[in-house]
C-alpha cells in the first residue's frame, strides 16, 4: 500500500451498491489516477447479507454500524448508496470527520437536509460529490463539449424526459422508492433529478423557475417483502403509495432557454429512456440512453446525423475498448469514480458538488409546490 491508497467504506449494497462496487473494483484497471482506492468495508443492516455482499462484491470486510466506518483511520472515503432518508445523517457525520463523501442522488429527501449537507461540505476538509452518473455517459459529455464550443449557437429549447415502466403493474409492491419517508419523492426525485442534472450539465444553464404537475396513478399497492434489485416479493396486505408516479414541468433556464421535462415510471415499454434534445440557433443535438453510444447532431439543415461515440478521442472512451465496441450503464459509474478520485488526488473540487445537489433539490421542491398553480378549464 502506498500513501496514495485511499480506504473506501461503502454504506448500502443493493442495486446502487452493486454498481458502485463494480466501479471501485475496476477503475484503476482502466484509468491512471493519482490515488488508488482500497475496498475496505461494506456496511448494511443485516450481518449475514452484508457478509455475503462483501464476499461477492470484493470488499475486504463488512459491518452493520456505519458510525464505526467513519471512526476508522484507514477509511478515507465514504460512499453512500442507501435510500435518501439516511443520506444527510451519514454524509454530515462523515464530512465532520474529514472524510471524502460520494453520495447517491438525489442528494437528500428535503431542501433543508440538502442545505445542511452543502453547509457541512463547505466546512469540511473532505471533498464531496453527488453521484449523477449520466453526466459520465461519453455521448452526454460530448454533448456538453459541443454546446460549450458554440456549435449549437444560442440554446433556446431543452426537452428532457426520463421514461421507465417498472411499476406499471398495480400489483408491483410498495418498495422503498414508493414511500415518501424513505425516498423523498417518486419518479420526480428518483429519475427527474437525473434529467435536471443532465440538462443543466449539457447546456451550462441552471433551471431558474418551474411550473409543474405530479400524479399518483396507483394509490395502494401490496406491501413489500424481501427485496430483490428494484423489486420485492408482494404481501397480501396493501399500503398507501405516498409519492408521485409521474411528474412533468416546464422551466426557464438561466441563459434564456425554455425547458420541458417529464419523469415517469408509467411509460409502458420504456425501460430506461433518459432522452434529451437541445435546440440552438445554429444546430441541435439529441440523445437517448437506450442507445447510449450514439449522439445525434443537426447543423441546422438536412436533419440529424448520428455520431457513434465510440472513438478514442471521445470523452472517457480511450480507456476502454477498440473503436465501435461500445460501453454500458456500469461504465458511467466507473467514470464517476474516476473523476471523483482524480479530483481528490489533485486537490480539486469534484463536480457535481453538494451545492449543485442542493440546487437540484430546490428544483424538485419547486415542481412539487407549483402543483398549486394548476388551473382547471371550465366545462
Ligand atoms: C430506478 O428508477 C433507477 O434505478 C434509479 O434509481 C437510478 O438512479 C437510475 O439510474 C436507474 O433507475
TrEMBL record:
Please state every residue range assigned to the domain named Gfo/Idh/MocA-like oxidoreductase N-terminal: 7-132
**What Pfam families does the record point to?**
GFO_IDH_MocA, GFO_IDH_MocA_C3
Locate the coiled-coil region(s) and give their ranges. none
Recorded GO molecular functions are: nucleotide binding; oxidoreductase activity
Which keywords appear in this protein's UniProt record, sorted alphabetically?
Answer: Oxidoreductase
Query: Which ranges carry the GFO/IDH/MocA-like oxidoreductase domain?
Result: 141-285
| Protein name in the entry | Putative dehydrogenase
Amino acid at each position: 500500500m502506498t500513501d496514495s491508497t485511499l480506504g473506501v467504506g461503502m454504506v448500502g449494497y443493493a442495486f446502487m451498491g452493486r454498481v458502485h462496487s463494480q466501479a471501485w473494483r475496476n477503475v484503476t484497471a482502466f484509468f491512471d489516477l493519482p490515488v488508488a482506492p482500497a475496498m475496505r468495508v461494506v456496511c448494511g443492516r443485516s450481518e449475514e447479507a452484508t457478509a455475503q455482499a462483501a464476499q461477492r462484491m470484493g470488499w475486504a470486510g463488512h459491518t452493520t454500524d456505519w458510525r464505526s466506518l467513519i471512526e476508522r483511520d484507514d477509511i478515507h472515503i465514504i460512499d453512500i448508496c442507501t435510500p435518501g432518508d439516511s443520506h444527510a445523517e451519514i454524509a454530515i457525520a462523515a464530512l465532520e470527520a474529514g472524510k471524502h463523501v460520494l453520495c447517491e442522488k438525489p442528494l437528500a429527501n428535503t431542501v433543508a437536509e440538502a442545505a445542511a449537507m452543502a453547509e457541512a461540505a463547505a466546512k469540511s476538509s473532505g471533498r464531496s460529490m453527488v453521484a449523477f452518473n449520466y453526466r459520465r455517459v461519453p455521448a452526454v459529455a460530448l454533448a456538453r463539449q459541443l454546446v460549450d464550443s458554440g456549435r449549437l449557437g444560442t440554446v433556446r429549447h431543452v426537452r428532457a424526459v426520463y421514461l421507465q415502466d417498472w411499476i406499471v403493474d398495480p400489483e408491483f409492491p410498495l418498495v422503498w422508492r414508493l414511500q415518501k419517508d424513505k425516498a423523498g419523492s417518486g419518479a420526480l426525485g428518483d429519475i427527474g433529478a437525473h434529467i435536471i442534472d443532465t440538462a443543466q450539465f449539457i447546456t451550462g444553464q441552471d433551471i431558474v423557475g418551474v411550473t409543474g404537475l405530479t400524479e399518483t396513478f396507483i394509490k395502494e399497492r401490496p406491501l413489500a417483502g424481501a427485496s430483490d434489485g428494484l423489486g420485492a416479493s408482494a404481501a397480501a396486505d396493501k399500503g398507501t403509495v405516498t409519492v408521485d408516479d409521474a411528474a412533468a414541468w416546464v422551466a426557464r433556464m438561466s441563459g434564456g432557454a425554455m425547458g420541458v421535462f417529464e419523469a415517469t415510471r408509467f411509460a409502458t415499454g420504456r425501460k430506461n429512456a433518459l432522452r434529451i434534445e437541445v435546440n440552438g440557433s445554429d444546430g441541435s443535438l439529441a440523445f437517448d440512453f437506450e442507445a447510449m453510444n450514439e449522439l445525434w447532431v443537426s447543423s441546422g439543415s438536412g436533419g440529424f446525423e448520428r455520431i457513434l461515440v465510440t472513438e478514442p478521442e471521445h470523452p472517457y472512451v480511450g480507456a476502454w475498448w477498440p473503436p465501435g465496441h461500445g460501453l454500458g450503464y456500469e461504465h458511467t459509474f466507473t467514470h464517476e469514480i474516476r473523476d471523483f478520485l482524480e479530483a481528490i488526488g489533485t486537490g480539486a473540487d469534484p463536480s457535481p458538488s453538494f451545492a449543485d445537489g442542493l440546487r437540484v433539490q430546490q428544483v424538485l421542491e419547486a415542481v412539487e409546490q407549483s402543483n398549486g398553480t394548476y388551473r382547471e378549464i371550465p366545462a
